[in-house]
Amino acid sequence: MLFMHAISGRARGVFFRALALSSLLLVHFAAGSAPALAQDNPSGLPLPRFVSTRSNPINVRVGPGTKYDISWNYLVSGVPVEIIQEFDTWRKIRDADGSEGWVHQSLLVGTRLGYAAPLIANGEVALRTNRAEDANIRARLAAGVKVQLQECDGAWCAVAAGQPGERASFSGYVRQEEIWGVYPDEVFD
To answer: Smallest Cα–Cα separation from 117: which of 146, 138, 91?
Structure first.
C-alpha cells in the first residue's frame, strides 16, 4: 500500500470503491457457482446428485410442471440421470448425452446406475476382479454398457454389468473415472 501515498485522496477513493465492487462481484459469482446445500432444496438432498428413472414411459418437459411442453420421452426405466435443480416436486435432470429437462420426483428413484465411459475413444472399460490396475480382467465393457453401482471408494467402484437377476451378469471393480454416474472422488456404499 506504499504506492497509495503517491496518489491523491480523490483517486484513492475511486480505487477503493473499484476494489470493493470487484470483491463484491467476485463473492457473488463464487457463491452462484457453488453446489446447492441440502437445506436449500425442496428435497433436503444435495445438488447435483445421481439417480435413475423409476418407470416408463417418462415425459421430460421443458419446465417444472404439466403445463409445459414435452421435450422427449424415456421409453425404458432404469436410465441413470443427474438431478441438477429442484423446484417444488419437480427435478431438472441431465442425462449422459447432456440433454436437460424436467420430470416429476415420483418418476425417479435413488438407485445408482451408470454407464461405462472409457477414457480412450473407441475403448473399453476393464472390469477387474479386485481394486487394482494389475488385477485380472473379468470382462471388458463397451462404451455405454449400463452398470449397477454398488459402492465407490473414490478411486474404484464395485459394479455389476447386466440386468438384475440375469445369469450373464458380471461383477467386479472399475476405475471410478471410467463411469458416467458417479462424481470424481465420491465415496458411498
So the answer is: 146
